[in-house]
Amino acid sequence: MTNIYTPQQQRVLLITSLLIIGGFIVVGLSGYVSAFLGAGILYVVFQPWFRALTVKRKWNRSLVTALLIIFSLVVIILPFLTLSLLLIGRIQYYSQHTDDILNLVKKAEDLTGYQITSPQNIRSITQQAASYASKLLPSLAGGALDFIVILGVLFFTLYYMFVQQEDFLKGLRKYLPFKRDTQQELGESLKNNVNANVLGQLLVCLVQGVLTGATLWIFNVPDAPFWGVVAFFMAFVPVLGTPLVWGPAGLIKLSQGDTGEGVGILLVGVIVIINIDNLLRIMLAKRMGDIHPLITLAGIVLGVPIFGILGLVVGPLLLSYFIVLIHVFERENKKQEEEVIKDEERLEQKAEQAIVKKR
């Protein structure tokens, strides 16, 4: 029986069907984007360990993958979840008990002589901060079942990315619309971003969080461990970071008449914590991924509202990919221009040779 569609119509309908079905798949899996992104990030982080154990030591691939999953659960997921729950719980506490914040603002106003904002605005800002933190950070408060499903999808994806690594990489190379050189550049950019914004940033933020918490504890600031956790998360944001924690703490101490403690917090923050941050970033920049701080900052602003806490990595990665593709586009255009010039030169040479032959 003859098909009623022409080959061109069949091709258009095939592409349309793929786009429609693909759209349904993307919409259906949109709630699990964080799981797939997290699996990709952990895949890049654990890739050197996986190769060392499976290639050099000849360990069983499934066993190594299972050990890496257990390691990531115990060392990464559970501690991060605990810190998130601690942070969200305290923010929600302050959002429901705004009197403490209002008293601090009142003392700051008495010290400076300026009215900072109204009590209604402070309550509104505090409640909005609690709501934003609950959405940004993963927690069981958002639903234990959803969290378990996302975690299961993450580890399930990670397992097959390692166990069927050759097929996974072969599929990427086959279906990505880029040349081999471009794919290598994108892979290197992914590796640099993960190293710089996961491993490097995590180390820097951990050091800054510990230093900030210890400083506040030494100078008798209430809830110093909590504010150390806040400093850990804030340290992911370049430039601003921990000064948003120890700066107000020092000013509050000054407003309460504790001049020595207030000055001590500010001095330690400016002399030690900020310089440690700059020193570590410079030391790790070349070793763990040469990513410009502006790309990191702009990427965080771009990625966090869209992807939540994973936007700390995904945002800078998107900007890096955009820059890589621009360079590739520029390079390909340059090659085409050179080829056009060469073709024109060949035509001119042939024309000249034809003229010489006629003579």
Write a concise keyword list for the protein shown above.
single chain, 359 residues, mainly alpha, 2 domains, 13 helices, 84% helix, elongated
* First-to-last CA distance: 64 Å
Largest sheet: none
The chain-level structural class is mainly alpha
**For the CA atoms, what is the radius of gyration?**
28 Å
Would you count the extended β strands for me? 0
Q: Strand-and-helix sequence, N→C?
A: HHHHHHHHHHHHH
Number of domains: 2
Q: If helices are DSSP runs of H or I spanning 4 or more residues, what is the number of helices? A: 13
Low-pLDDT parts are: none
Give the DSSP E fraction (strand runs of 2 or more residues): under 5%
Residue-averaged pLDDT: 75
How would you describe the oligomerization state of the chains in this entry?
A: single chain
Tertiary shape: elongated
Helix content: over 70%
Secondary structure elements and pairings:
Elements: H1 7-28, H2 33-56, H3 61-96, H4 99-112, H5 119-136, H6 144-163, H7 165-175, H8 180-218, H9 224-234, H10 243-255, H11 259-288, H12 293-307, H13 311-358
Helix pairs in contact: 2-3, 2-6, 3-5, 3-6, 8-9, 8-11, 8-13, 9-10, 10-11, 12-13
